[in-house]
Amino acid sequence: MKTSPNPDRALTADIGPSPLGDESSEHDRDAESQGRLCETVSKNLGGRVRDLRKKRGLTLNELSGRSQVSRAFLSAIERSEKSPTLPIVVRIARGLNVSMSSLLGVEPAATGVASNRSADQVTFRDPQSGFERTVLSPLREGGGAEIVKHCIPPGQSSGLLPVYPTAVEKHILMQEGELTALIDDQEYKISSGDTLSFMIESSYRLCNEGSVPCVYIVVMVERG
């Protein structure tokens, strides 16, 4: 007995794979690419610290005094034997008088219109907390404004972050989860869609006390 073709099946075959599946695969590829880039950034960090230190004519002892990071730990970082946490990286950048993004290897963009494509965005992942910092905006010579994205896993924090060498204003736009900011001994809580702005005049801490990842955009503006 001859069966008639199933029109629904034929239609599905003509349509091909689901667009959603394609988007999912593309997202997975982007995530894998970003993960590899993150590993490369961490692996190259020691060399960047060493090169910038020597370029500025600093000894390990001098950089230790300027960054408040022990000489032994700096030496281990330069030899890629130790992976620094976010607060340590910020302190080293301050000691070298460069932005954290510059220390991580982000090159200044050309003048005029500049883009920073997703696949090229540099991410630093804290080896202890899993805190992620992704540079979204092109880096400009002379500072100005910078846009980054932070992602804090549940129950983790940025650690105690130091003051920058120059006056910096920070603007936070929450995307997912809830953020607790500890600034000047005061606690501020914001959730999806909320914003928070403050001048970095003392050490501060950003925490995720919730059960889901906390994701937010940060705009930093130099005022000094």
How many strands appear in the DSSP assignment?
A: 9
Helix content: 25-40%
Task: Enumerate how many helices there are, as a single number.
Answer: 6
Low-confidence runs of at least 5 consecutive residues: 1-20, 26-31
Shape: globular
Structural class by helix and strand composition? alpha+beta
Give the overall pLDDT as a whole number.
85
- What does the largest sheet look like? 6 strands, antiparallel
Spatial strand sequence of the major β-sheet: 1-2-3-9-4-7
Structure description:
The protein has six helices and nine strands. With 224 residues, the protein is α+β, with helices and mostly antiparallel strands. The strands form two sheets. It has a six-stranded antiparallel beta sheet. A hairpin with a 6-residue loop joins strand 1 (123-125) and strand 2 (132-135). Helix 3 (60-67) packs across helix 5 (86-96). The radius of gyration is 22 Å and the shape is globular. The chain starts with 6 loop residues before the first helix and ends with a strand. Mean pLDDT is 85; it is low at 1-20 and 26-31.
How is this fold's topology laid out?
Layout: H1 7-15, H2 19-55, H3 60-67, H4 71-78, H5 86-96, H6 100-103, E1 123-125, E2 132-135, E3 145-152, E4 168-176, E5 178-183, E6 186-191, E7 195-199, E8 204-207, E9 214-222
Antiparallel strand pairs: 1-2, 2-3, 3-9, 4-7, 4-9, 5-6, 5-8
Helix pairs in contact: 2-4, 3-5
